[in-house]
């Protein structure tokens, strides 16, 4: 099965107030050290896969350069990353090659570099088309800049564009949210991601929400109920516009679902490079009882560049089956139980049987022709459902 490659670039022009990712504002010297280290890791990946006990796969059909803001790297640094990937792996001619970009950074030179690197998909961290909302969380772009850049990308031949939106930003109201959705739909992009703002206590906005204050607009953050309403409105408006929901947070016009992200939800193999990057490879045949090997890099930049070891997590067959449920249920299409039994054995059909029956009775899940999925009502509280599915299994494990 072809591999997906993810490269994390943890550099940003400014730090968004809600963000707790392993990202920050750094100098050019740090960029260079980082690119050197990522390229070394890409070059030694066959060896790493072997040491981890995973199957090395040379064929690649998706590359995702995420951030942070990868386009802050110099053109030659970006090109070197892609060249190293192409030297080490066999990248298919039709591979999906996505680069995350912050609106306001897409100069003609950057777009030219994306094309030179084989980029054919751009994910724009717009978050809101209302300037006050974007600036309140320290985003640097405006609606005008974003629309101009979408036009420039199209003119350069990159029409496969994703817009990220966040429901629950400070100052957001049902009216302003509808305006962001209308602008998103009118822009004609084929893919939209909608996230509900989850404020981590380690972010500046999170600390202000706990301790009080006005600097990061914490007092203008909508409450959880309103945020959930905004998310529901987005689902309805985007589906109505032909941008269909295919995952809890993702919507696409026909044929534009993200190939790369689908790998995560359907447990296809992928390799991650850079800080806080995760890989999952099929387990080698001699790894008895194991389905897959997951391994991850440290989430601390200095530790990563100084060569911190990988963190390895072997995945046994029963754990792989649980993952298949949790990841597959994120998809609107849900999971095909027969396929699961074929892949993980007869006990796959018994996973959390009683709870799933309860959720079906409550209208949170539905089982149709052997296909299990969350309903629209269920998608709204997916985190609670996943925790509830996990809870009895966790306590069962502690008891044994
Ligand atoms: S651009 Fe993304 S990674 Fe960077 S601070 Fe903002 S949310 Fe975080």
Strand-helix topology:
Elements: E1 3-9, H1 28-43, H2 45-52, E2 59-67, H3 75-88, E3 90-101, H4 108-116, E4 121-127, H5 131-136, H6 143-155, E5 161-167, H7 174-187, E6 191-196, H8 204-211, H9 224-240, E7 244-247, E8 250-252, H10 259-265, E9 270-273, E10 278-282, E11 290-296, H11 301-305, E12 311-316, H12 317-328, E13 335-336, H13 337-344, H14 353-361, E14 365-368, E15 371-374, H15 376-380, H16 382-399
Parallel strand pairs: 1-2, 1-9, 2-3, 3-4, 4-5, 5-6
Antiparallel strand pairs: 6-8, 7-8, 10-11, 11-12, 13-15, 14-15
Helix pairs in contact: 1-3, 3-4, 7-9
Bound molecules: iron/sulfur cluster.
What is the CATH third-level topology name of the largest domain?
A: TIM Barrel
Q: For the terminal residues, how far apart are their CA atoms? A: 36 Å
- In helices, the fraction of residues equals 40-55%
CATH class of the largest domain: Alpha Beta
Number of helices: 16
Ligand types: iron/sulfur cluster
The biggest sheet, with number of strands, parallel, antiparallel or mixed sense and barrel status, is: 9 strands, mixed
Q: How many domain regions?
A: 2
Round the Cα radius of gyration to an integer and report it.
Answer: 21 Å
Biggest sheet: strands side by side, in what order?
Answer: 7-8-6-5-4-3-2-1-9
CATH superfamily of the largest domain: Aldolase class I
| Second rung of CATH, namely the architecture of the largest domain | Alpha-Beta Barrel
Extract low-pLDDT stretches: 395-400
Instruction: Quote the average pLDDT.
Output: 92
**Strand residue content:** 15-25%
What is the global morphology? globular
Number of strands: 15
């Amino acid at each position: 099965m072809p591999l997906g490659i993810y490269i994390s670039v943890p550099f940003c022009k400014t730090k968004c107030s809600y963000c707790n990712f392993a990202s920050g504002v750094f100098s050019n010297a740090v960029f260079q050290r980082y690119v050197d280290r990522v390229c070394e890791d890409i070059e030694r990946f066959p060896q790493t896969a072997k040491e981890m006990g995973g199957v090395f796969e040379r064929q690649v059909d998706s590359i995702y350069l995420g951030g942070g803001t990868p386009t802050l790297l110099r053109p030659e640094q970006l090109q070197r990353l892609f060249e190293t990937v192409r030297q080490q792996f066999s990248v298919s001619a039709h591979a999906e090659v996505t680069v995350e970009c912050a609106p306001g950074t897409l100069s003609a030179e950057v777009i030219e570099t994306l094309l030179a690197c084989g980029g054919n998909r751009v994910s724009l961290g717009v978050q809101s088309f209302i300037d006050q909302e974007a600036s309140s969380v320290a985003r640097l772009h405006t609606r005008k800049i974003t629309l101009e850049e979408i036009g420039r990308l199209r003119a350069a031949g990159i029409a496969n564009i994703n817009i990220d939106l966040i429901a629950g930003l400070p100052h957001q109201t049902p009216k302003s949210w509808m305006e962001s959705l209308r602008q998103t739909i009118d822009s004609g992009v084929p893919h939209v991601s909608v996230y509900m703002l989850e404020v981590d206590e380690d972010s500046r906005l999170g600390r202000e929400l706990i301790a009080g204050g006005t600097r990061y607009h914490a007092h203008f953050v909508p409450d959880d109920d309103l945020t959930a309403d905004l998310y529901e409105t987005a689902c309805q408006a985007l589906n109505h516009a032909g941008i269909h929901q295919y995952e809890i947070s993702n919507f696409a016009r026909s044929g534009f679902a993200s190939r790369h992200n689908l790998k995560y939800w359907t447990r296809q193999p992928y390799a991650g490079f850079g800080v806080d990057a995760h890989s999952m490879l099929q387990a080698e045949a001699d790894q008895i009882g194991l389905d897959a090997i997951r391994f991850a890099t440290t989430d601390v930049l200095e530790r990563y560049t100084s060569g911190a070891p990988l963190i390895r997590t072997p995945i046994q067959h029963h754990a792989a089956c649980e993952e298949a449920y949790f990841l597959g249920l994120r998809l609107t299409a849900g999971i095909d139980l027969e396929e699961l039994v074929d892949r993980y054995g007869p006990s796959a059909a018994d996973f959390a049987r009683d709870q799933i029956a309860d959720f079906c009775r409550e209208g949170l899940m539905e089982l149709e022709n052997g296909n299990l999925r969350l309903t629209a009502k269920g998608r709204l509280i997916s985190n609670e459902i996943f925790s509830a599915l996990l809870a009895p299994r966790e306590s069962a494990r502690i008891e044994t």
